[in-house]
Amino acid sequence: MRTINHIIIVLMALVIIPSAWAQQQNQFGYMPKSVKRVFLTPDHAGQSFQLQNNKGDEVLSGTTTVAKDWPHSGTTVCYAEFSELTAPGEYELILEGSKETVSVSINADNYSELGNALVKSYYMARVSEPVKEQYAGIYARPLGHADDKVIIHASAASKERPEGTIISSPGGWYDAGDYGKYIVNSAISTYTLLHLCESFPKYTQAINLNIPESGNGASDVLNEAIINLKWMLTMQDPNDGGVYHKLSSKRFCGMVMPHKDPLERYVVMKSTAATLDFAATMAKSYRVIKPFESVYPGLADKCLSAAESAWQWSLKNPAVLYKQPGDIQTGQYDDKKIDDEWFWAATELFLSTGQKEYRQAVSFEEQRFSVPQWARVNTLGLYSLLNDTEKAKELTKKSGKALLKIADKLYRDYETSAYRISITKFPWGSNSELANEGMVFIHAYQLTGNEKYLHAADACIGYMLGANPLGYSFVTGFGTKTPMHVHDRRCKADGIEAPIPGLLAGGPSLQAQQDCGKDNYPSSYPAMSYLDETCSYSTNEIAINWNASASFLVLGLDAIYRSEK
Ligand code: 9MR
Ligand code: 9MR
Fold first, then answer.
1. Dihedral angle, C-alpha 401, 405, 410, 411, nearest 10 °
2. Strand partners of residue 105
3. Going by DSSP bridges, is the β-strand pair 266-270/150-152 parallel, antiparallel, or unpaired?
4. Contact call for residues 533 and 492 (beta carbons, < 8 A)
5. What is the pLDDT of residue 398?
6. Which of 147, 175, 178, 224 is catalytic?
7. Is residue 58 flagged as an active site residue?
8. Is a pLDDT exceeding 80 seen at residue 93?
9. Could you tell me the sign of the dihedral formed by the alpha carbons of 442, 443, 444, 447, in that order?
10. What is the pTM of this model?
11. How much is the average pLDDT of 144-167?
């Protein structure tokens, strides 16, 4: 009788729900200590499940949770959690009464493989040098944008460098799917990689990315960060210390390979945000590069003096906000509120010099600390203060308090959310918002030793890799359903079907649905508004700042799991 009932149920299921069985989880693979949750449609709530190893033996059993709504996607889910299963291996999750199973993979090398690819993507994005086959395989390409004849735009003209003056500003990384180079976004991206090196020196030192600098005695993460730092140095006007906001053509070029871009390139106006972000990043780099004096002789000192002259320019020009000139159409990165940039720059300069002048400028009074992104940078100063427990104990203490305030608010969201995820906002680049939340959790863990923050950080990686209502793993090449049509000129034009691996797609957002046409988006729920199409720059572009937060999250967590600081 039971068998007959069972057959009838299975037949009914086949008739009523002919579509694939819906489950969402980390598609690439878990670490032994990861939180492990497979999300299921609400009809599976309260069901028994078990995990079997590849010999068919049951290794763990449990019951799925009750179903809950997630307002951001308009979906209802329950989940099977099996975080206690820590032994590396391949498993099948079997739900009572269901024919289908879910494959689960646990492997201690998963996050290093993923994290290294996230950082390697910067090599692929290098400007002014050929990307060579021995490092890039099929994604090798000729040199694009020598940037040795860059024009001073009218908005950037000065006495010593009038409009039309030619300067040289080679190197660095392409910002995103376009070929611009933008200081504000470069700063947070480069800082994040430098901070990874500062936070986990032993771990990062051992990373080999197979890039031209590998084996030179410095960490490859640092080597890669220095590529962009060196370009940033060329964006400072040596005559006054001010820093140009960006280097780009007047408009975006077509979807062509870098070496096929015919447009002239300009540096566009100096801004206080760019100059302060530059000062902060250069000051931070002084501390991280100094131990590698023999590999990079003189570079650390050069960065610090560049930071100091940038600060001096900012004091004289405290509120020059970027305003896009009428004849320029590329990315704006315009930030109307720059007191957080002041805090960040003062903090990094103080930590590198110990000088009173900078110390006095580090005031917590009027700061509202939040999850960092390119326009909100004061929390980056907190991160640095937390790494230096000697220089100013009361500042480190205050930083800890401010950081935990953000982390605990996020943790409450994590605990109560149907998808067990902290994210509640879906701006352009929402996946990076999430990765930056994960970074906050990592810092909270380092501060308190409380493992609950590690779980919340790991859940961010789970979401990024497929435990989300869209069921996409958003890192190209990592997972079973990954973006194939990212908004990236190289990926579009290189004639290779698979996109460059290790790129984090921006992720769902309602912010600019006009890019593909509002009607073409599948949903008006923010967490569902995503299109794996080239037209969708608002949800499917890639960017150096997004990859940076993801790199820190994945490799930082790996370092902690391996306990190699
Ligand atoms: O390719 C550009 C991308 O990098 C930017 O993020 C985006 C928003 O500024 O713009 C993209 O360029 C598009 C332009 O704005 C409008 N015409 C089509 C361009 C390519 O899709
Ligand atoms: O990441 C940026 C996002 O926060 C903004 O809302 C958006 C529109 O101004 O611009 C994004 O940055 C793009 C930049 O302007 C040009 N290069 C591509 C960047 C990622 O889409």
1. 70
2. 90
3. parallel
4. no
5. 97
6. 178
7. no
8. yes
9. positive
10. 0.96
11. 98
Residue nearest to atom 12 of ligand 1 (CA): 252
**Cα separations (Å) of 354 from 297, 314, 380, 561?**
22, 19, 18, 33
Amino acid making up residue 515: D
Nearest CA to ligand 1 atom 21: 535
Residues with CB under 6 A from ligand 1: 176-178, 252, 331, 537, 541
Question: How much is the pLDDT for 2?
Answer: 46
Distance of CA 62 to the CA centre of its chain: 34
Q: Which ligand is nearest to the CA of 375?
A: 2
- C-alpha distances out from residue 250 to 148, 152, 262, 293, 515, Å: 17, 12, 12, 39, 20
Instruction: Residue 368: count other Cβ atoms within 10 Å of its Cβ.
Output: 11
Question: How far is it, in rounded angstroms, from Cα 231 to Cα 490?
Answer: 21
How far apart, in whole angstroms, are the C-alpha atoms of residue 105 and residue 90? Answer: 5
Quick check: is 487 catalytic?
yes
Burial 28-55 (b: 16+ CB within 10 A, else e): bbbbebbbbbbbbbbebbebebbbbeee
What is the pLDDT at residue 564?
61
- To test the pocket of ligand 2, the residue of 428, 434, 490, 534 to mutate (highest count of ligand atoms within 8 Å of its CB) is 428
Phi, psi for 266 (deg, rounded to 5) = -125, 155
497 an active-site residue? no
pLDDT classification of 18: cutoffs 50, 70, 90: very low
Q: Can 541 be counted among the known catalytic residues?
A: yes
SS3 376: strand
Given 195, 487, 488, 515, which residue is catalytic? 487
First to last CA, the chain: 60
Of 73, 79, 87, 75, whose CA–CA distance to 32 is shortest? Answer: 87
pLDDT band, residue 97 (cuts 50/70/90): confident
Q: Are strands 150-152 and 166-167 parallel, antiparallel or unpaired?
A: antiparallel
Residue 19 has pLDDT above 60, yes or no: no
Residue 187, number of CB atoms within 10 A of its CB: 32
Give pLDDT, residue 112: 98
